[in-house]
Amino acid sequence: MGMGRPGAGESIARAMQIIEAVGDLGPGATSREIADRLDLPPANIYRLLNTLAVEEYLVRTADLRGFALGNRLNTMVHSAVTPYMSSRAQELCEKFRASVRFGVYVMHFRPATLRIVDMDPDHPLAAEHEMIRSLHASAAGKLLLAADSQWRELLPPTLPALTQSTVVEMRELAAQVEETRQRGYAVSVDEMLDGEASIAVPILDVEGVVRGAVTVKGFSARLDAITSLVPRCRELAAELGPLLY
């Protein structure tokens, strides 16, 4: 019997795998990256990628080089995957932002990636795509890794260097992960973008599991001022935890 096109059941399963891969890789995932994640030749997924884009389960990014989850899929899964920012949670974040001169964000952790559930309107992230996909470089990503005993499995074999300061050696990253666990919060300095520093303080659910983070971002030259906000970030995280989880 010859090898023809995959049957309907196999095509559906492969389409779901593609959607899951785009969700894990984050906005801008290229066909090559998706194929590598699924261990398939790119030619095998082109047709399904185009079909998913036509049906709005995926959408092409503005530069036409990659894909992101589409509106149709976002509508289906948003409430189930992303915690709801209630008016009280938004009020707490707005009050905190009004008292500092840095960007303040609320992150939600999934098993292998993170999502921004509350963006600072006055401080848009210049490297949102890289932050989501490069867990080893951002403060929120380091915190996510520190919360997972199998954190090495969440990373690619080769860690990309986003700047000259990005930690790409696994031994050095392991030391940072352990330091984050001991300290109780994560720090990133010049690793995502030159001249940028951030901290991430954990948000816990009712069982004490790390489910997200309060992140503060500013200029590296203001690192001391940023880290001085850790106690206040912990207070905000403690208030947000019951509201989000």
CATH topology of the largest domain: Beta-Lactamase
The CATH class of the largest domain is identified as Alpha Beta
Share of helix, binned: 40-55%
> Biggest sheet, in brief?
5 strands, antiparallel
Gross morphology = globular
Q: Largest sheet, order of strands side by side?
A: 4-3-7-6-5
- Computed over alpha carbons, the radius of gyration is 19 Å
Label the structural class. alpha+beta
Strand content: 15-25%
CATH architecture of the largest domain: 2-Layer Sandwich
Would you kindly provide a written description of the structure presented here, covering whatever features stand out?
It holds the Pfam family IclR_C. Keywords: DNA-binding, Transcription, Transcription regulation. InterPro entries: GAF-like_dom_sf, HTH_MetabolicPath_Reg, Tscrpt_reg_IclR_C, Tscrpt_reg_IclR_N, WH-like_DNA-bd_sf, WH_DNA-bd_sf. The chain is α+β, with helices and mostly antiparallel strands and 245 residues long. It folds into two domains: 7-76, Arc Repressor Mutant, subunit A (Orthogonal Bundle), CATH 1.10.10.10; 84-243, GAF domain (Beta-Lactamase, 2-Layer Sandwich), CATH 3.30.450.40. 43% of the residues lie in helices and 17% in strands. It is built from ten helices and seven strands. The chain has helices at residues 8-25, 31-38, 46-54, 71-81, 87-98, 128-133, 139-146, 170-183, 223-227, 230-244, and strands spanning 58-60, 67-69, 103-109, 114-118, 186-189, 196-204, 210-219. Helix 1 crosses helix 2 (31-38) and helix 5 (87-98) runs antiparallel to helix 10 (230-244). The longest helix is centred in the N-terminal third of the chain and has 18 residues, at 8-25. The chain starts with 7 loop residues before the first helix and ends with a helix.
